[in-house]
Amino acid sequence: MALSLPAIMRTTAARLSALYLLLFALCAVLLVFYMTSLSARMLTAQTQETINDEVLGLARAYQRGGLPVLVRVVEARSRQPGANLYLIADANGQILTGNVQSLEPGVIETEGWTTEPFSYQRFGEGELDRLRSGDQAAPSTGTSGAQSEGEKGHNAIALVLRLPNQMIMLVGRDLGEPERFRAVIKRSLMLALGMMGLGGLLIWFFVGRAALKRIDSVSDASRRIMGGDLGGRLPVTGAGDEFDRLSENLNTMLARIAMLNEGLKQVSDNIAHDLKTPLTRLRNRAEATLAGKHKTTDYRQALEGTIAESDQLIKTFNAILMISRLEAGYSSETAGPVDLAATVSDVVELYEPVAEEAGVVLEATVPEAVTINGNRELIGQALSNIVDNAIKYSTGAAESPKVRVTLERAGGEVKLSVSDNGHGIPDDADRARATERFVRLEKSRSQPGSGLGLSLAKAIMTFHNGRLDLLPANPGLSVVMSFPSRETH
Where is the Histidine kinase domain (predicted)? Predict the structure, then answer.
């Protein structure tokens, strides 16, 4: 997707790249000026030290033999190759000896170090320039006409001294080598600055644009999801970077939202279909009671039936609310250490009269103590629902109906299973559907109930980070509640 420059600069990646590039450029420019000035100071100090050493040597020569020895030494050193400058002039500034042919005006008029680098020409360079240009005029040996020539010459710094006989001695050093060194440093730093800028642009082009494309793909997927495509997911490239981790987390969140929306849709549909029958029955009973003349006992029976039917509806709504709260991960119930053995014993003791009345043998195989992290009331409610279903659906299915509750450890889990020898649920698809809300299989239509018992048990197991499995018991059905052990929970 092509973007204009203003649109690109509104992106975070482009702004960060521009800020980093600006920061690098400022640092590089400051580094260029700092290194250039530092090298200039170091070279100037080194040059001045070299000039001082030369002056000391010439001073010792002057002390040994006076002006004649000094002139001979200056002439000898002037003929040696190197960057040092030597000049002896009279009191009027006329050059007498040395390797300097001309100077800028005013250089030797002030004693001491020259304040600024000055231009000069070495001995013989002016004559060579005139030969090259065809000018055969006589050379000047003074300093008066050297300004135009000196401007085309070299640069140097020097120490100007007044001798006792008012003669002038200049000892200096050419700055060509330091200037070349400074130029090399400046070019190197400028090249480094250019490479940094080019590198920043390349990094933005290859890395920043890739990040922008990733962000654009995430934005496109988000717009599709907001447009109603709840099955859409954010792209994951498999690189394992921050974008992939963010996309994976958001996809997990979207899957959770989709599951909750599907559950909400199912609840709405189930309420519309499955709760319509008891409400219609409740209304018909009240209408039939009011239709004719009845005795007081008839009205009382009708009201008692209405209350019983209302209580059943309230239980159904409470179960739906509890399932929704548990599936959403929000519940006011607190978790703590729970002794499953004691919970199983309490539930079995509670349902023993019910089982005995139905002609079902209820047995339990429970160790001394098995402790997990959970909520005792929720676990007891789930186990009660499962035991109640096992007693109801094993009645009349065998000559000696039996329900067995077993508690055991298996690896890193604690398994609580309720098995019966009834008809069971032979079909795998029916066993998967049995835990959905308001689902009642054909063989269970004759039994009272709302189809929420196993749904609530499944929601409770999800709340406890466990699972609910429906397995064939051959014959019958085995409902297994698998809890993580207390150490791994």
Answer: 270-487
